[in-house]
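Pipeline run #58 for the internal structure catalog. This entry was flagged by the ingest filter as a single-chain record with no existing model, so it goes straight to prediction. Upstream metadata was stripped on purpose; only the residue string is passed forward. Reviewer on rotation: M.T. Logging verbosity set to normal.
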Amino acid sequence: MKYILFVISSLTLLFSCSPKPAPEEEQAFMLSDTMMHRIQLDSVVMQPVRSELILVGKVMADENRVIKVFPLVGGSVEEVKVELGDYVHKGQMLASIRSGEVADIERQGIQARSDLLLAEKNLRVAQDMFETKLTSQREVVAAQKEVEKAQAEANRVQEVSKIYGLGKTSMYTVKAPIDGYVIEKNVNRGMQLRSDNAGNLFTIGQISEVWVLANVNESDIERVRLGMDASIQTLSYQDDLFKGKVDKIYTVLDPGTKAMTVRIRLNNKAMKLRPEMHATVTLRYEDGGTMTTIPGGAVIFDQSKHYVMVFRGRSDIETREVNVLKTVGDVAYIKSGLKPGERVISKNQLLVYDAIND
């Protein structure tokens, strides 16, 4: 028994005197070639301090490129050839109306042509009789005046027919006055139209350029200027940012909302923007002064603090806390923590942050 205890004590002493294995030295962090290709570096620069106004707006067709189509006669709508949103060409048939007024104009035309033929015949007879001394010159002059009167009436009816675009039937054809889209339609087949109807049947608009009208609160009016850059987003195309400028400021405020309207003109060749779409309008303006800035995407928010990854080399990357004043669009304004000329990681910086700070 004593022998066993002696052996255990000897072994314990032997292991306790053996040197402990040295801990492995920590490896310094270094970005791999793959990560170097995945990140993006941006320099800290000084920029004017800007702010932004967020406005609610609506897409409208350019009023200078919109024509309302009114019926020139009353009657029954026989046919409607287009639907809302259709693209039409100038002179294309939009609808047809069977009209008693058209029939009456056609009757007047037939009567006027008949009266003119009769007057011309009477003039020739009077002239022949005057040459044979069977009538006086007064009769010839009177016949000439009748011809002129009949010609004037025929010309009047012909001009009315041209204005109305009438043919030789009782049908009145509504035609497109310009190339464009049907942006309003207020007629259906079978409708009865009165001759004194004041409403338009169609509205045709060219929307290769559109307006966005936005309301500015009374407290923000002093910040709005002509020529301000504007960014527009819509619910239909949330990933698209449309760019334009403020080209008109309406001086009259809406009496109900006490808001002022501003207009932004936009190119719409892609035809994505349609009248009556709701839009979010962002206007940017300068506050005065300058401040250090970096891309907004370079800022990391963690544990209620803001950080950036300052890059000095592949193995020299610092996690630095910064004081962010505000972010406007894709620009972050830094009150303290960075100096102009330093470089920060602005893409995939979270991967580097996690690798260094884990």
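catalog note: The longest strand covers residues 278-295.
catalog note: The chain has four domains: 33-47+289-357, 54-63+206-288, 72-98+170-205, 100-169.
status: ready for reviewer M.T.
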